[in-house]
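Let us work through a complete example step by step.
Step 1: write down the sequence.
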Amino acid sequence: MMVTDEIRTKLEAAFAPKSLEVVNESNLHQGHAGDDGSGESHFRVAISAAAFEGQTRIARHRAVHKALGPDLIGRIHALALDISAP
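Step 2: predict the structure and record it as tokens.
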């Protein structure tokens, strides 16, 4: 399974988001630090879910990282997050 699909699957299961966009931006970072040549190292996620209501920005980021798990987070060099509550 591609990393993009893993991210999407885990976030959908954890948060039942109203909206979710997962974009692989690895091609924009070819030859830069953190590019491992896999084409799956840099991602941008925009997610909106009721589960984030009342949480601080840091709590939201921690919740996403926890949902993705240490194995998946360990394979990602950069993860840009735009997290909101509907």
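Step 3: interpret the result. The two ends are 29 Å apart (CA to CA).
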